[in-house]
Design goal:
The structure is a single chain. By secondary structure, the protein is of the alpha/beta class. The chain folds into three domains: 286 residues, 4-Layer Sandwich (Metallo-beta-lactamase, Chain A); 180 residues, Rossmann fold (3-Layer(aba) Sandwich), CATH 3.40.50.10890; 52 residues. The strands form four sheets. The chain has an eight-stranded mixed beta sheet with strand order 6-5-4-3-2-1-22-23. Strands 7-8-9-10-11-20-21 form a seven-stranded mixed beta sheet, with helices on one face. A hairpin with an 8-residue loop joins strand 1 and strand 2. Helix 3 runs antiparallel to helix 4 and helix 5 packs across helix 6. It is globular and about 80 Å long.
Amino acid sequence: MKLTFVGAAHEVTGSCHYLNAAGKHILVDYGMQQGIDVLENAPLPIDESQVDYVLLTHAHIDHSGMLPLLVKNGFKGQIIATDATVDLCSIMLRDCAHIQMQEAEWKSRKAKRSASQAPIEPIYNMEDAEGAIHRLTPFPYDEVIDLCEGIKIRFTDVGHLLGSASIEVWATEGNETRKIVFSGDIGNKKGTLIRDPQYVKDADYVVMESTYGDRYHPSERPDYVEELTNIISDTLAKGGNVVIPSFAVGRTQEMLYYIREIKEKNLIPENPDFPVYVDSPLAVEATGVFQKNIQNCFSDEAKALVNAGINPLTFPNLHLSITSDESKLINFDETPKVIISASGMCEAGRIRHHLKHNLWRQECVILFVGYQANGTLGRFIIDGTKEVKLFGETIDVRAKIMTLPGMSGHADKDGLIEWITNVGKDINKVFIVHGEDTVAKLFAETLRAEYGYDTYAPYSGSSYDLIKNEPIYMAKPVYIQKKKPGRVSDVFARLLAAGQRLISVIHKNEGCANKDIAKFADQVNSLCDKWDREI
C-alpha cells in the first residue's frame, strides 16, 4: 500500500496524488499548474492507461484541469466526485479545452512569422474534454461507498466550493486496513452562500492542504457588503468602472450575492440602478449549477432567501454577456459600471481585455477578490507593477488596485488547525501539500512543534509505505532552470528528461526479483560514478 506525491508538492496548484492499494491504481485529483512552475513535478509512476479511478475533491482547474489529458493518454477508468462537482466539471473542462485551443491557435499564428518554429498543439482538445466528462461518476455527500474490493470512500463537504469535499479512503490489503483522509481545499468559515466546512473524524494518514498556512484572515469577518458599497459608490461617482477579476465558479456567485443585497437595501441611493456585467460564459453556466444545488450545498442564510421566494444571485440591471460581441460592447459603453470577469488570476479569458481597457484609467478600480498564485498576472498587479503587457501592447497601471481582505475560499492558519484537530490526534503521519515552498515547511513545523503531529511536507516524487509507516523514497526538490539560448541548454534539457525517465523506470521495477534489482542498482551507481562532477 503506497502513496506517491506528484503535484502541488511545495506548490499551490497542480494537485495530484497517487494511491496504490488493494491492487488498484488511484489518483486523487489531476490538476493543472497555474502561474510559474518553480519545481519539477515527477511523472506519474504508472502509465495513464493503468489508472483505475480518479477521486476528485472539487472542480477548480488546479485540481481537475488535466483530466482531459489523462483521457487523451489512455485513461479508461471512472472519475468519482460529488454531484455538484460533476455538474461543474461538465462545463469547466469544456471551457478549459476551449482556452487551450484558442491559445494554441494564437501561438501558432505567431509561429508562422518564424520559419524555425513549428505550429503549437494544444495540451488537449474538446474531444478529450468530452471524454473526461463522459467518465465522471457522481456520488452524494456523507455516504460510505464500496468503490471496489478493498476500497471504500466517503465525501464530506469541506466548504471551499460548491461540491467540494474532503475524501476519506479505507484501503484493505489482506488483514491490514488503513484510513487515508485527503483534505481537499479547506473552506473559509462563516461564508454566506455555501456551507461552512464539515469535519471528518479519525485517520491513519492525512494529506492536508496548506495554502494559507502562514497567515490569518481578519479576526472579525469584514462586512463585505459595506466595503463593496463604498468601493462601487466612490468609483462610479468618479466616472470609472469597478473591474473584478473573479473565478467564474464560486467567487463570481459570492459577488452577485453581495451586490444583490446592496441593491435590495438601496445602499447607493445616488446611483441605485448601476449596471453590473458578468462577462464569462462559464460563470453564467456555473451560476445555473449553483441554483440547481441549493438544497445540498447552500448555507442556511442563502436557503432562507430561496424559501422566501428571493433568488440570491440575481437583481435589476444585471447583464450576462455570452458572445464575444457582447463582451466587446461593454467597454464601448461609457456608463460607469461593475464588470465581473474571469479568469480570477488574469491568466486567460476575457478579463485581460477589460484590464487592457481599464488599467490605464485613474478613475477606475481593479478589485481582486481571490488568491493570486506566484507568477500570475494578478499577482504582479497586486505586487505593484507599473506596467503590464497585454496582447502585445504595454499598458500603464494607473487604476487603483484594491483587494477585499479575507475574501478567500481557503481557510486561514487557524481554520486549517481547527480542521486537523477535529480529525484527531492519533494519526500516523500528516502530509502537508498544496502550499508555497516556505509555507508548507512552516505549517508542517507548526503542527509538529505546537500540536504534536508527525508531519512531512513531501517533494514531488516522494513515496510512502502506508502499511509499514515508513518512507519508500524521499525526493529532493528539483528546481526548474530558466532555459538559456543555444544548443547546450537543449541538450541539457534532454539529459533532465532522461533522468525523469530513469526514475519512472526504477519505480516500474518494484517487485521484480531481488537479484535483478541489485544488478540494475549497480549499473545505475556505476553510471553515476562515471559522470559525477564535483561542484
